[in-house]
């Protein structure tokens, strides 16, 4: 398992460099000129050229790319065109909001998806199974922002149970922090919980029908032990795979959810940067999110080795 972790960490470096290059190329390939956005469309050619020189956009493409890769490797994402501050500082201030939202959404995903999937597998073709499958299909079909709008209308506007939007820091008011994140976390996490419930159900049905499970039941092993030790333990590899996938989807889905609920996270920062063509902010946010995804994938691979005895021996 240690060898696998070291191998994945070694591969992390070239993958990270490739992601940084792709982020730069994709951002600079989009139409539009940040200088024109900065000054306005009626500005003359001389004014735009002066701004491009001040922002470093008149340098050769390869030089800009080299500056970006070298700088980002040292944690320097450059200066924002519009915020008047470093991109690293701007992203660092907003990461706790995104991590809080994604963490609570992941908690919703696991705490709802795994128990419902297990319950459906224990009673196949029953009303419990039917309700679970139907609910999973419903939340998989409805986008997160539609669920969010419904929650805002019902829980915030009509019933006044939660604030409509905004954010309160955890250190300032823990109760307010939770109240502002309940609806966004539910809107973001329920779709992934539906996916996890379906995958847990399918994996558990396959494992519970295996010979060793029937043998354990024939020996009189308690049903709870059969389900947890013989069923869930063997199905854990598939479940961990879906949880890793859900984590990456939660990070990408947070962009829309943060904008909808007015949360000052990395997602809302990136949305405003895209509208203003703030290249350094877009590149920095893309690279930070991609780095987190790479780390999650490494953690999932290491979890495979911890859960699968054959991989540990290999």
Give the SSE layout:
Elements: H1 2-29, H2 34-39, H3 45-55, H4 61-73, H5 87-122, H6 127-141, H7 144-158, H8 174-208, H9 211-218, H10 223-260, H11 266-276, H12 279-307, H13 309-313
Helix pairs in contact: 1-4, 1-12, 5-6, 5-8, 5-10, 5-12, 6-8, 7-8, 7-10, 8-10, 9-10, 10-11, 10-12, 11-12
Shape: globular
Derived structural class: mainly alpha
Overall average residue pLDDT:
89
Number of strands: 0
* Largest sheet composition: none
Radius of gyration (Å): 24 Å
Pattern of helices and strands: HHHHHHHHHHHHH
Low-confidence stretches: none
Q: Give the termini distance in whole angstroms.
A: 8 Å
Number of helices: 13
The amount of beta strand, in percent, is under 5%
- Relative helix content: over 70%
């Amino acid at each position: 398992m240690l060898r696998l972790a070291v191998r994945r960490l070694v591969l992390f470096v070239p993958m990270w460099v490739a992601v940084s290059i792709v982020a730069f190329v994709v951002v600079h390939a989009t139409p539009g000129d940040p200088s024109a956005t900065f000054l306005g469309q009626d500005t003359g050619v001389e004014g735009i050229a002066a701004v491009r020189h001040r922002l470093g956009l008149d340098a050769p493409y390869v030089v800009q790319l080299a500056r970006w890769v070298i700088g980002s490797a040292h944690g320097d994402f450059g200066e924002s065109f519009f915020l008047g501050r470093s991109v690293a500082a701007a992203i660092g201030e907003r990461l706790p909001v995104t991590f809080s939202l994604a963490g609570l959404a992941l908690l919703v995903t696991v705490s709802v998806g795994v128990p419902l999937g297990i319950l459906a597998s224990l009673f196949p073709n029953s009303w419990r199974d039917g309700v679970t499958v139907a609910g999973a299909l419903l939340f998989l079909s409805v986008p997160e922002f539609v669920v969010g709008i419904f929650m805002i209308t019902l829980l915030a506007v009509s019933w006044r149970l939660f604030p409509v939007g905004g954010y309160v820091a955890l250190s300032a008011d823990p109760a307010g922090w939770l109240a502002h994140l309940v609806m966004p976390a539910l809107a973001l996490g329920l779709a992934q919980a539906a996916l996890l419930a379906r995958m847990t159900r399918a994996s558990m049905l396959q494992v519970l029908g295996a010979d060793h499970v029937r043998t354990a039941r024939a020996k009189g092993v308690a049903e709870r032990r059969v389900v947890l030790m013989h069923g869930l333990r063997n199905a854990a590899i598939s479940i961990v795979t879906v949880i890793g996938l859900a984590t990456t989807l939660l990070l990408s889905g947070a962009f829309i959810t943060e904008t909808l609920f007015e949360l000052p996270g990395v997602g809302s920062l990136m949305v405003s940067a895209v509208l203003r063509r703030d290249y350094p902010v877009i590149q920095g946010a893309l690279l930070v999110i991609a780095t987190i995804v790479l780390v999650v994938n490494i953690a999932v691979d290491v979890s495979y080795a911890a859960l699968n005895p054959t991989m540990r021996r290999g």
